[in-house]
Amino acid sequence: MTKAPISTSRKPTIKDVAARAGVSFKTVSRVLNAEAGVRADVRDRVRAAVVALGYTPNLAARGLSGGRTRLIGLVTYATAEAFLENHAYLSALETGFIDRCQALGSSLAIEIVRANADLESEVRAVASGLTKDAFILLPPLADNMRVIAALEATGAPVVRIAPTLDLDRCVYVGMDDEAASFDMTQRLLTLGHRRIALISGHPGHGAAEARRQGYVRAMRTAGIEIDPGLIRQGWFTEASGFDAAMGLLDLDEPPTAVFASNDMMAVGVRRAARLRSEDPAAACLSIVGFDGLRTVMAGWPTLTTVRQPLTQMAWAALDAADALAEGRGTISVVLPHSLLEGQSAAAPHTVPIG
């Protein structure tokens, strides 16, 4: 069959792809939408034509026609400072999302809801853009029922990552933060620590409270009375970890170990301990974190921390979003955590390696 010539002065259309592949434009549409019932050789010809012509599907047009756009909206919420400081956490998730999108033949639209803006206006702007097959909500938006309702009003399904409230509302992917915090606190207790401080996370994140509860349960299980002076407020940022650690080291009886509720705050604690390294309490301070971020683990001494399965969370969330967009049933997923042993924790009054 003679292939129809394509003008180089305009963008290729779906009909151009159909002509090159020798099929109908409806068949091209079925291939682009990953629908069943298309022979493998026909699917291969269509894909080859798409690549040869440099064809890019019109997502808006596909949404208006009632078909799948294969566009997933990833909605996150952050102040500029927190977004920059927690880039490693967000990058770990986003890498997982992108990898899984490629496998599923979907695209990802990252939507950032600004912390200082009107929340409902921000969500309306997200919903009024290109039509999405589904939305994935990152914390703390995953616990905001107004946001969930506004997105559900678009008709697209919503998948939440790491929510702590109203878990029956919609499908979610997460892990047991309370149990993970309990396990890490127990690890410090096993090393012999009794004066264990906790730097809690951002009060607007449900996970911060779950991690505090795990710490409290472990201490009480060990028969240790909770010292309110050893629980300090942090904001999931390195600066807040540093400030909290400096205050703890100023106590008449400083802690022998600090459990930071995320890895970035643990970096701040490590910086404070180095700054005060001539103080024996700082030199011997054991430090543990929560997240398992590679960029932080690569520091020295390597950080003992809770590993969140962030990549697996992203994969599971994308799979759930894809299933819901296709009209297939799916269930919520709770993934296991693990403890990563570094060199930042040792027995009390022992200088950790580094």
Provide structural commentary.
The protein is an alpha/beta fold and 354 residues long. The protein has three domains: 14-57, lambda repressor-like DNA-binding domains (434 Repressor (Amino-terminal Domain), Orthogonal Bundle), CATH 1.10.260.40; 71-175 and 310-337, Response regulator (Rossmann fold, 3-Layer(aba) Sandwich); 177-308, Response regulator (Rossmann fold, 3-Layer(aba) Sandwich), CATH 3.40.50. 44% of the residues lie in helices and 16% in strands. It has 15 helices and twelve strands. The chain has helices at residues 14-21, 25-32, 40-53, 59-64, 80-85, 87-104, 119-127, 145-152, 177-190, 206-221, 238-249, 263-275, 280-283, 294-297, 310-325, and strands spanning 71-78, 107-114, 134-137, 158-161, 172-175, 196-200, 231-233, 257-260, 286-291, 304-307, 333-335, 338-340. The strands form two sheets. It has a six-stranded parallel sheet, sandwiched between helices. Strands 7-6-8-9-10-12 form a six-stranded mixed sheet, sandwiched between helices. Strand 6, helix 10 and strand 7 form a beta-alpha-beta unit. The protein is elongated, with a radius of gyration of 25 Å. Residues 4-8 have low confidence and may be disordered.
